Amino acid sequence: MSKSIFIDEVIFRFWGKASVDKYHPALCHMIDVGIMANELLEVQTPRIKKRLYSLFGDSTGSGLSFITALHDIGKISPGFQIKRQDLAQPLKAHNFDFPRFAETNHGKIASYCLPSILQEEMNCPEDLASIISLILAAHHGVFAYCDTVIDGTPRWNESRKAITSRMFP
Fold this sequence. Notes:
Blueprint: H1 3-10, E1 15-18, E2 23-25, H2 26-42, H3 46-56, H4 60-69, H5 78-81, H6 85-93, H7 106-122, H8 126-137, H9 154-167
Antiparallel strand pairs: 1-2
Helix pairs in contact: 2-4, 7-8
């Protein structure tokens, strides 16, 4: 099975939000949040919009959607996914590893993995990638910087990259 077919098969198995009997895939949740960010931009006052567009140019809406959507990329990690053992089983069946002491804070995972994803997949400059990553990692109110994590095999990072590239091809 080719890597892209494998990823397409697995990409919706990562949960982002879950209740007792169902889950919302992380990818879908991230897209939902990106769309909401764009909608919130649209209802801002002309003054605020003018200021944002003067800072970020014509790509303000798409850029804001993109950055905001990435807020939960850290949920694509063994420590987060194992929080729901039942939902982790399909990932285990696809040979995703779940190290015993994997980082469970998805903000820390984002601050650790997102800079390289932004640089490699989106050609983002290193300093900007680091700033964006720290801001997104703090979306629960805590700056969750982490320079090393227990995060499983490279398959996890490949999945995060695949999700990023599918949101913004």
